[in-house]
Amino acid sequence: MAKKKSTENHKVIVIDSLKSIANLKFSKEEIQLLKKNIKANGEFFELNRLNVLTFVVLASKKQDYKSKEKLRQAGAVITSRLNAVKGEDVIVSAVVKNDNALFVVEGMALSNYQFLKYFTDKKSKENSLKNIFVQEDNISSKKSEELWAVVESIYKCRDLVNEPLSYLNAPTLSDELVEMGKEAGFKVEVLDQLKIESLKMGGLLAVNQGSLDPCTFNILEYKPKKHSNAKPLVLVGKGVVYDTGGLSLKPTANSMDIMKCDMGGAATVASAIYAVAKAKLNVHVIGLIPATDNRPGGNAYAPGDVVKMYDGTTVEVMNTDAEGRMILADALTYAKKYKPELVIDFATLTGSAVRAIGSYASVMMGTAERTTFEELSESGYDTYERMVQFPFYDEYAEEIKSPIADLKNIGGAEGGAITAGKFLEHFTDYPWVHVDIAGPAWANAGKGYVTKGGTGTGVRMLFDFIKRNY
Question: What are residue 344's DSSP bridge partners?
Fold first, then answer.
């Protein structure tokens, strides 16, 4: 983010009407060419002056969620073109005062992400684009700074999800969270295995029984002096750093290949708090992240076991691959101590959610006020991280009753995303939203500004929701 003037830099100019082209410093021939091509192709056109590129982007005057997404996607195409010509610097400017240019920048920056850590020849694979300069004449400096905070947090989130278990076990995830706290300015407390045992967090400990690595429980807190909320917003993230399914080993071919992404909820929560702290939003927010892997080794918990949870509830384990809800339940109970205004949990929880709506949105349900769901949905549309609210009828809870314990950890063959939610509901006594991000948290192929691998889903939506409401 800077002001920079140079005839050698590539440029992106965002306009709001074709009439604006006449005010740009182009020749008559270039102006005619621009008008002709933008009318024909829409959105934007590229001028190539001896491999110095100028992109003119036509933004819709109707700023709805679809028009904003078109600008992000245009930004992704621009980044691809700049990398194709080995461009290093680009200046983005706007002819009128609004946020349209920032949506273009957002798409440009997010599409330029790469995870190259494990390549021996990563230098040769690096994108050439290094700097996106924002000329702030008509672009809000504050909003620009907030955007960079969010972009940086998305990079953090994607990095965490893309890291393999060979590096990112539960203790290493805790180390990464501590570093994020130091960088952004929030506190991180890590409870080790001994402390977790003393607290009798039975769900987290049960899932961890098959692992050689200890589990951790991470408490993140950002509390500025002038926070606007009397009671904290608590975010809970599922931190299963790798999921084999445990003794209920995943049966589907290739289903374990991407299970390093099963801590996507933890990455979303930590990265959202990172963005909030970087942007210095006036909100008291707490993150709770239980972390472990789920393996079938050693003394692994088994189908038929009865586990006593942190709050004393007994759970009959019918499937060890339903482990996420076991560790989240302990975290949701722990959240009660903060007397929260609202709790939102994020988890790559069920294949059922993916089968219901695919990878184009996340599923949400819970006990919060209707307005909370409406606000989350609005933020979801605005950031194009859309959310679908599922029914949450009492009848679904009948399916998780056990004949030998208080609950069982799975329901029937149908409505699995909802019965998982009803299991979690048992451990709450506050306004609560459960968000199942199993679909959009991982992309098998990149598309636009959503890069292959960890997507960082939920972070932009959460930041927008917090900014709007706190």
Answer: 235, 433
State how far the Cα of 320 lies from the Cα of 422, in Å rounded to an integer.
18
HSE of 125, CA atoms in CB hemisphere, 13 A? 10
The mean pLDDT of 229-249, rounded to a whole number, is 98
Which of 470, 114, 410, 440 is closest to 265 using CA atoms? Answer: 440
Structural domain count, the chain: 2
* Bridge-based pairing state of the strands 342-347 and 314-316: unpaired
Any idea what the CATH number is for the domain that residue 294 is in?
3.40.630.10
Residue 259 shares a structural domain with residue 293 = yes
In terms of C-beta density within 10 A (0-12 exposed, 13-18 middle, 19 or more buried), how is residue 406 classed?
Answer: middle
As given in the structure block, the two tokens for residue 470 are 């706190």
Q: Which of 97, 113, 138 is the last residue of a domain?
A: 138
Residues 23-68: tens digit of each pLDDT = 787 888 888 888 887 766 667 788 888 778 999 998 888 889 999 9
Return d(Cα 416, Cα 426) in angstroms, integer. Answer: 16
Burial 244-256 (b: 16+ CB within 10 A, else e): bbbbbeeeeeeee
Low-confidence winner among 37-46, 133-142, 393-402, 460-469 (lowest mean pLDDT): 37-46
Q: Is the pLDDT of residue 292 over 70?
A: yes
- Show which residues are catalytic: 250, 325
Domain that holds residue 158: 149-469
Helices (H), 301-369: 324-334, 351-357
- Please enumerate in sequence order all residues whose Cβ is within 8 A of that of 138, keeping only pairs 6 or more positions apart, or say none: 93, 94, 95, 96, 97, 98, 101
Burial zone of 306 (CB within 10 Å; 0-12 exposed, 13-18 middle, 19+ buried): middle
Q: What span, in angstroms and rounded, lies between the C-alpha atoms of 347 and 362?
A: 10
Tens of pLDDT, residue by residue over 92-112, are: 999 988 899 999 999 999 999
Q: Taking 90 as the threshold, does the pLDDT of residue 9 lie above it? A: no
Do 133 and 158 have their domain in common? no
C-alpha 237/C-alpha 246 separation (Å) is 20
